[in-house]
Write a structure and sequence with these properties.
Blueprint: E1 2-7, H1 14-25, E2 28-31, H2 32-41, H3 45-54, H4 62-75, E3 81-85, H5 91-103, E4 110-115, H6 118-132, H7 139-162, E5 166-170, H8 175-186
Parallel strand pairs: 1-3, 1-4, 2-3, 4-5
Helix pairs in contact: 1-8, 2-3, 4-5
Bound molecules: adenosine monophosphate (AMP).
Length: about 190
């Protein structure tokens, strides 16, 4: 199994690049943002609770997200590997993920961190807000989401850097250029499927 975390701040291109990685390497994509938005749309109890945080640009509590990930992994026993997008977002989530994977006799192989200057992140997210229909893609909430990234999520990079698994990739060029850089790293571990 090959397990990859695509890491980076909001607007760094994780969702777009995950699609490219999935197509090329046939990994199972797990995006906690997508899973949470699906719960919100279906008005499940989890979705109703999560929406309160998402609309304010705050992270949803760890136990909610970890439970959701755990069931998702269990639903996909035959996966060639996973690409985690937008998860883990806190050190506690990273530790929980490491334990969940260890229980399955596997682990995270690689963490690719997309590096994009802050002003470019804001411009991209504001631009996306015009068409995404996402209630959290507006200037005020975007600022809060980036703040949550710095105070809570950046620690995830250090967690995996200590394990020697973190690679930083420039994410400020075109989608194609960035994907080439990501693929160069993944190719060291896994051949395209
Ligand atoms: P995203 O689509 O990854 O930008 O996530 C949108 C929103 O969903 C975030 O601003 C959080 O409120 C929530 N969210 C997504 N993933 C997580 C996570 N791993 N932990 C906590 N909250 C999350």
């Amino acid at each position: 199994m090959f397990n990859l975390i695509l890491f980076g701040p909001p607007g760094s291109g994780k969702g777009t690049q995950s699609e490219n990685v999935v197509k090329t390497y046939r990994l199972q994509h797990i995006s906690t943002g997508d899973l949470l938005r699906d719960e919100v749309t279906r008005h499940t109890p989890l979705g109703v609770e999560a929406k309160k945080y998402m609309d304010q640009g705050l992270l949803v509590p760890d136990e909610v997200v970890i439970g959701m990930i755990s069931s998702k992994i269990d639903e996909l026993p035959d996966a060639r590997g996973f690409i985690f997008d937008g998860f883990p977002r806190t050190k506690a989530q990273a530790e929980a993920l490491d334990k969940l994977l260890e229980f399955k006799n596997t682990s995270i192989n690689l963490v690719l961190s997309l590096e994009v200057p802050e002003q470019q992140l804001i411009d991209r997210l504001v631009g996306r807000g015009a068409t995404s229909g996402r209630s959290d893609d507006n200037a005020e909430v975007i600022t809060k989401r980036i703040k949550e990234y710095h105070t809570k999520t950046a620690a995830v990079a250090s967690h995996y850097a200590e394990q020697g698994k973190l690679e930083r990739v420039k994410g400020d060029n075109s989608i194609e250029d960035t994907f080439r850089l990501l693929a160069k790293q993944i190719d060291k571990y896994l051949l395209p499927a």
